[in-house]
Amino acid sequence: MSGRRALPVPDGLEGERLDAAISRLFGLSRTRAAELISAGDVLVDGAGAAKSDRVQAGAWLEVTLPPPPVAPAPVAEPVPGMTILYEDDDIVVVDKPAGVAAHPTVGWTGPTVLGGLLGAGHRVATSGAAERQGIVHRLDANTTGVMVVAKSEVAYARLKRAFKERTVDKRYHALVQGHPDPLRGTIDAPIDRHPSGDGRFAVVAGGKPSVTHYDTIEAFRAASLLDIDLETGRTHQIRVHMAAVRHPCVGDLLYGADPTLAARLGVTRQWLHAVSLSFDHPITGERVTFTSDYPADLAESLERVRAES
Q1: Residue 125 phi, psi (nearest 5)
Q2: Boundary-marking domain end, from 41, 65, 89
Q3: Which of 37, 94, 226, 283 has its CA 20 to 30 A from that of 239?
Q4: Catalytic center at which residues (predicted)?
Q5: Whether residue 170 sits in one domain with residue 283
Q6: How many CB atoms lie within 10 A of CB 285?
Q7: From residue 229, how far is each of 34, 67, 173 by CA, in Å?
Q8: What is the DSSP pairing of strand 60-65 with strand 42-44?
C-alpha cells in the first residue's frame, strides 16, 4: 500500500488528533503515523502539520505512504536441535526447537525452519511467497513441537486446503497460571492485531473468528497443565485466548504473565508445546499422526511446579 493518497477527512474523524486519524485511515500504528507526519509525508490542505493538530471534517489530506517492508529470503543453514520426525517425497515433519521461526519475516534475524531444511539439503515446495515456500502452518518462534512442511506442490495445495477446512487436528500442551474455571471449556473470541501496533494480538470486536478448546490435565498450586485443541489457527491464538481469560501461559511476559512465577520455575519463554499433529496424508489419504515429547526446559519447569504443589 505504498504511494501517494489524497482524500478528505471523513466526518467521523472530526476533532481527532492528526496521528490518530492517519492511524485509523491507513491501518498504521500511532507511532508509524507520527513518524510520517514528522517526516513531512502528511499534508493538510496543502501544508505541513503537527501530530497533535486536530483535524476538521472535509480538510484535504495528502499522505505519502512508504513501500511495505519486504521479508528477507531464507538463509539456508542447518538449525541445531531441529530434528526430522518423518519424511517422504511429499512432506517433512519436524520437531521445532525454541528460538526458531517458521520462515523469514521482517525484523526476524534468527534461524528458521525453512532455512534449516534447505541448509540440510531437503527439497521444499516452491508454492507461495519466496520466504514462505512449503510453509502450510506456523508455530511461534518460542513455541516448540510438531510442524509439517510441504515438499511437493500437490502436497502444498492439499495441506493448505486441509488447514483452511480445519480437518487437521492440532494439539498443544500449555502450562498456564492459576486454575481455569471451568476446568474444561471453549474460548470463542475473535482475534486481530492489538490496536497499539506493537506486534501483539488481542481479542477485538470484528477480528477473525477464533476457537480454542481446553481441558485441564493436572492442576498445581500456582498453575494448571492444559491439553488444548485448536479449531482455528490464528497468530498467537492460544497465548491471546488464555491471557484474555486471565490465565496466561507461564513465562509469556508479552501477554501479561507473572515474571516472578516464571523465574521461580526457570521458564524463559511461553510454556507452550505442540504435542501432536494429525492429518490426512496429502498423497495417500491415510490419516497420520506425529507427536513430540516436551523439550528439556519445559519438562524441568513442570517438575518444579509439581514438586512445590
Answers
A1: -60, 150
A2: 65
A3: 94
A4: 140
A5: yes
A6: 8
A7: 41, 38, 9
A8: antiparallel
18: domain CATH number is 3.10.290.10
The more confidently predicted of residues 268 and 309 is 268
Cell, residue 96: 521445532
Q: Domain range spanning residue 197?
A: 166-309
pLDDT on residue 194: 85
Q: Is the pLDDT of residue 2 over 90?
A: no
Of 66-80, 102-116, 272-286, the range with the lowest mean pLDDT is 66-80
pLDDT tens digits for 147-199? Answer: 999 999 999 999 999 999 999 999 999 999 999 999 999 999 999 988 777 78
End residue of a domain, out of 137, 157, 177: 157
Q: How confident is the model at residue 67 (pLDDT cuts 50, 70, 90)?
A: confident
What is the rounded distance in angstroms from the CA atom of residue 72 to the CA atom of residue 137?
19
Which residue is listed with cell 519436524?
Answer: 94
Query: From CA 52, how far away is CA 37, in angstroms rounded?
Result: 10
For residue 140, indicate whether it is catalytic.
Answer: yes
Cross-strand bridge partners of residue 261: none
In terms of Cβ atoms closer than 10 Å to its own Cβ (0-12, 13-18, 19+), residue 108 is: middle
Which cell goes with 46?
A: 496543502
Query: What's 257's domain CATH number?
Result: 3.30.2350.10
Determine contact, residues 153/127, Cβ cutoff 8 Å.
yes
Mean pLDDT score across all residues of the chain? 93
The reported pLDDT for the residue numbered 1 is 53
State how many domains the chain has.
3
Please report which confidence band the pLDDT of residue 130 belongs to, taking 50, 70 and 90 as the band edges.
confident
